[in-house]
Specification:
Structural class of chain B: alpha/beta
Strand content of chain A: under 5%
Radius of gyration of chain A: 22 Å
Distance between the termini of chain A: 27 Å
Strand order of the largest sheet of chain B: 5-6-7-3-8-9
Number of domains of chain A: 1
Order of helices and strands of chain B: EEEHEHEHHHEHEHEEHEHEEHEH
Largest interface: A-B, 27 and 35 residues
Shape of chain B: globular
Strand content of chain B: 25-35%
Shape of chain A: globular
CATH class of the largest domain in chain B: Alpha Beta
CATH superfamily of the largest domain in chain B: P-loop containing nucleotide triphosphate hydrolases
Number of strands of chain B: 13
CATH topology of the largest domain in chain B: Rossmann fold
Distance between the termini of chain B: 31 Å
Radius of gyration of chain B: 23 Å
Oligomer: heterodimer
Largest sheet of chain A: none
Chain lengths: 312, 318
């Protein structure tokens, strides 16, 4: 059975309305300030640290993102923590909010499909994330230029640009997850709690749990097997994937993201940086994994939403 | 009656084994006000959602303006306005901005948009509060804003789900008057309600729902004749010789009851005031007062389901 008309009809209208809602909402403003203030504090601390201990470093600019100084964590750790929070804040009441305001059936009685409503909301959330993160990225670059006084090389810019895109994709995973729960749960509070709970579990508990599970389940004849198994399990968490990508992109000396045999290191020059394209290749499976996770979560939410009754 | 704009045949909605709507058939002519009446949970809203293509149809067919709402939802939704039960708007936006969003979803051209919005807001009496946030609106104002949305859409069919529920008597009277004015514009109106007496006055025809079935359908007068035996009650105050027999002989009168000295209550199939007056005067009697009481849907509904509940124990009307 073929439906009449395009599923994207009205997508732009929904997108613009949701984007303007996000950008003017108090909730978003609070989250944005939280992210900006903490991130800038982290970068400022990193700059102090670089000034104190800086030796000859070919990738001085990338240290802005990764170096930390007690008691503050580094910029990337802050992002790994705050981007999911922001994405969940954007998505947890996307659909159940429409239900509870009793606007859903009125909007869907207009000539648009549910596809346009859900996808428009997702894109608006992603665009809000992207706008905030791009602004933050520019802020960090500018602060670095002013305070270190060393211009970044082209390769450093390329690496940090890919890092920016990956951070947006990382936000996309949590946004898709939050929107999925906003479809499943009729109450916005339940959706927010479940999403936050899952985020805490995947970020804080799962990486510690994965080795235990791997050791219990896999045969330990070869000590490498549980080790690799644990890493595979840990990679089910988007936080692990994001951490690995950051490691490969922002530390050019990273040669592998998993355990390697000594024989594989033969002929390698320790401490020598990899070219940009090689670093991206190392992180490529993780990048694809993040994007695929976003798509899978969105599709599950989409199917659930299509089958749902609209009546309140 | 002109051509039907909505035609349902054997419309059925199943949730698992339970049937929310079970083989409902009706047809609505252009320009008519059709009432779907019945208690909450009788299947009215489900029927409406199926007509709009917002809920899957388990069995049967429905045609709205000649289109199948499942296969051609845009053709249906472009020409049908829907006011849901307890309609909601975005509270943080003004009335104008709320309607602008819908107008863009409908695809009203930019140059017409604001003029049409302002005109429809004025028609429902919200012209002064167009720039106020909807969060400050009362329930009656939200319902009127919902009607303004239908006006703005220039819909050919307006489907109103429980439009007067939760409104005070004055607000609901105003809303019903607006519904009548929609009809004068040639809009076909389908409205659902569990408040029988309140919507009775605006409906041309009604269908009484009970547990997913249409129990009764027709004009209020027809239902009155069918259920009460005589749709109209005529009260007469007169005196004269053998008046009761003379009144009973008037064509159309089913029965005559004494209602006090010199007072009679006639149950008739139609409005027989003129014939009754003639009968009194021609019989040499003196007529003091004559009045007619139209059948009330409440009475019809209760009487019908009292008759049924003796066998099946059905729920009472709301």
């Amino acid at each position: 059975m073929r439906r009449e008309g395009s599923p994207w009809h009205g997508l732009g209208v929904v997108f613009l309305k949701e984007l303007s809602d996000h950008l003017t909402s108090v909730r978003m403003r609070v989250l944005e300030w939280l992210v900006v203030l903490t991130a800038v504090a982290a970068v400022y601390a990193a700059i102090q640290q670089i000034k104190d201990v800086s030796a000859e470093d070919p990738f001085l600019f990338l240290r802005l993102f990764t170096v930390s100084r007690e008691p503050l964590p580094s910029f990337v750790s802050f992002l790994a923590f705050l981007v999911p929070l922001m994405a969940i804040g954007l998505g947890f009441d996307a659909i159940n909010g429409e239900h509870n305001r009793r606007t859903l059936s009125r909007i869907l009685s207009q000539p648009i499909y549910r596809d346009a409503l859900l996808f428009g909301k997702f894109l608006a959330g992603l665009a809000t994330l992207a706008i905030s993160l791009i602004a933050l990225w520019l802020l960090v670059i500018g602060l670095g230029l002013l305070m270190i006084g060393v211009p970044p090389q082209g390769e450093e810019m390329a690496r940090s640009l890919i890092f920016l895109l990956v951070t947006i994709a990382y936000g996309g995973v949590w946004l898709a997850l939050a929107m999925l729960f906003s479809v499943v749960f009729r109450s916005a509070a339940s959706a927010a709690l479940v999403t936050l709970g899952l985020w805490l579990f995947l970020t804080a508990i799962w990486p510690a749990l994965a080795p235990a599970i791997a050791q219990g389940v896999l045969p330990a004849d070869d000590p490498a097997v549980p080790l690799i198994g644990a890493q595979m399990l840990a990679r089910l968490s988007p936080s692990t994937l994001f951490g690995e990508i950051v490691l490969a992109l922002l530390n050019p000396t990273t040669r592998a993201l998993g355990p390697i045999y000594l024989s594989q290191l033969q002929g390698a020059i320790p401490g020598a940086p990899l070219p940009f394209s090689e670093s991206v290749m190392i992180a490529w499976p993780q990048i694809v994994g993040l994007i695929a996770g976003t798509i899978v979560l969105f599709v599950i939410g989409y199917i659930t939403f299509q089958r749902q009754e609209v009546r309140a | 009656m002109s051509e039907p704009v909505i035609e349902a045949k054997g419309l059925t909605k199943r949730y698992g084994d339970a049937k929310a709507v079970d083989g409902v058939s009706f047809s609505i002519a252009r320009g008519e006000i059709f009432g779907l009446l019945g208690p909450n949970g009788a299947g009215k809203t489900t029927t409406i959602l199926m007509m709009l293509g917002l809920s899957d149809i388990s069995d049967g067919t429905v045609r709205v303006l000649g289109h199948d709402p499942m296969r051609e939802p845009f053709s249906v939704k472009r020409r049908v306005g829907y006011l849901p039960d307890a309609v909601g708007f975005y509270d943080n936006l003004t009335a104008l901005v709320n309607l602008r969003y819908t107008a863009r979803l409908i695809g009203i051209p930019v140059e017409e948009r604001d003029a049409r919005i302002v005109e429809s807001l004025q028609r429902v009496g919200l012209g002064d509060v167009a720039d106020k946030r909807v969060g400050t609106f009362s329930r009656g104002m939200r319902q009127r804003l919902g009607l303004a949305e239908i006006l703005m859409k220039k819909a050919e069919i307006a489907i109103l789900d429980e439009p007067t529920t939760g409104l005070d008597p004055q607000a609901s009277a105003e809303l019903l008057e607006m519904i009548r004015s929609l009809k004068r514009d040639g809009v076909t109106i389908l409205l659902s309600s569990h408040l029988l007496d309140r919507v009775q006055s605006v409906c041309d025809r009604v269908a009484l729902f009970q547990s997913g079935h249409i129990a009764l359908m027709g004009t209020v007068g027809e239902l009155g004749r069918e259920v009460l035996g005589g749709g109209y009650a005529v009260d007469v105050e007169a005196d004269g010789e053998g008046l009761k027999a003379k009144l009973g002989a008037v064509p159309g009168v089913r029965s005559v009851q004494d209602a006090g000295p010199g007072k009679f209550r006639l149950l008739a199939e139609s409005d027989v005031r003129a014939e009754t007056a003639a009968a009194v005067v021609n019989g040499g009697g003196r007529l003091y007062r004559i009045s007619v009481e139209e059948p009330s849907l409440d009475v019809i509904y209760n009487r019908y389901f009292q008759g049924k509940s003796a066998h099946g124990g059905l729920r009472d009307a709301a």
